[in-house]
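Researcher: Quick sanity check before group meeting.
Model: Go ahead. Protein one:
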Amino acid sequence: MSYKRHNINSKRNGIVYFIILFYIYKYIMSADSELREYRNILLNLSDRYVLSDYPHADDTVRQAWITYRQLLRDLPSNSTPSIDSQGYLIGVTWPTDPEGYSGTKDPDGGRLN
């Protein structure tokens, strides 16, 4: 009887261990995927500013947008994202676009996450 009880407990411990690993993996993957999702939104919002026919005041403004977009593309390799207890993405230093918007706010002023 004690053998079966021990066997059940070790199976239960294995299941608990698996569930804990699953949630840790999900938590890590979730932060990385949220970073990429928000980054992609910001890249999409800034697409028009790098088109050759967009009417910029001068070439320095166009170059500022190109630099901003490159900083966005580099975010996944330059950041260690995680999610705080309230569900917000942290551990990311978002670049500021040439118009002054930070990466965690959309142009309408709301939070992206």
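Researcher: Fine. The other one?
Model: Protein two, sequence then structure:
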Amino acid sequence: MPVDLDDAEVAELIALLTEQIANEHHRASPRAMVLQAILDKLESEDTQQTRPQTERTRRIHAYVTRWTKEVEAEEQTFEREQVRAQVPSWITTLIMCAGLLAAIALIVYVSR
């Protein structure tokens, strides 16, 4: 459904969508994904028609891109830390099992 918007209206719509996406806590939320799809369509139409971006839109887009990269980096770091945290729990479990087996062996040895 094509909508007839002039350059200023498209620029403002892109700026508003970009701000809303930036305000979403999780980039993968359904709302953010829908807004991003709309923004991608607008920007692809904008690129096809070579509409000039306003300075405000450029700054907001740069902020969102940088923010998205920061969130992705934080999520990757968090996932790596979770994996590292799981390794000691396996080691601790293994040591506890070994200690339990040693205690059972000692009880069996003493009871003979």
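Researcher: One line on it for the slide.
Model: The chain has a mean pLDDT of 78.
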